[in-house]
Amino acid sequence: KAGVTQTPRYLIKTRGQQVTLSCSPISGHRSVSWYQQTPGQGLQFLFEYFSETQRNKGNFPGRFSGRQFSNSRSEMNVSTLELGDSALYLCASSSQGAGELFFGEGSRLTVL
Amino acid sequence: AQSVTQLDSHVSVSEGTPVLLRCNYSSSYSPSLFWYVQHPNKGLQLLLKYTSAATLVKGINGFEAEFKKSETSFHLTKPSAHMSDAAEYFCVVSDRGKGSSNTGKLIFGQGTTLQVKP
Questions:
Q1: Chain B neighbors of A92, CB-CB under 8 A
Q2: What residues 58-77 of chain A have any CB closer than 8 A to a CB of chain B?
């Protein structure tokens, strides 16, 4: 069974640009969550989608958005990038969103 | 509100000696607690989970953790460290949604870096 797949793995952007990250969950999983990991703030929850609906949202500005498609694949978008958005963005999936999450290897974003 | 506090940011042990990574939690509900491990440039892997069944939880790679409600602790232990155990470890509590149901929102501790010396 394939794990959680995130693309791209690495990317470099400049301030003011936007970026879209993609996540394919484990087959059969309907919940997808996104996390931001930085050395200073650690792992912080961005949002969770379940059956195409946003079920939970963390304390991030509106520049951070996401969506989930009918096949449970998810994307997150960050607009008007800032230097502080440089981070490892992790996607996780679960069958019911019931706590035990399976993580992808992440997309490492560098903003110059 | 729920939270976890990892008491050590860095732990160093010699190969073959015991490992103890400490975690305290705060929760309004009976918590679901987890330990995840992250190796360099990798995603997070679940080591073990506590979900109100047995208080002593066994995980992968010889790790185990004991849930102690009276001490609000969920410390991670391993009898004998291996070089491959060197990684960052996260104590995690699951946030509860409406109706006390688990959600996909996890609250992470700040992490403990485990160094294993030969």
A1: 44, 104
A2: 58
Beta carbons of A92 and A4 less than 8 angstroms apart = yes
pLDDT of residue B32: 87
Set of chain A residues whose Cβ sits within 8 Å of the Cβ of B94: 98-99
Span A34-63, pLDDT tens digits = 999 999 899 999 999 998 999 889 999 999
The B-side interface with A (CB below 8 A) comprises: 32, 34, 36, 41-46, 49, 51, 90, 94-95, 97, 101-111
Contact A99 B97 (CB under 8 A): no
The list of chain B residues with pLDDT below 70 reads 96-104
Alpha helix positions (H), A16-104: none
User: Which pair of structure tokens corresponds to residue A45?
Assistant: 């929850």
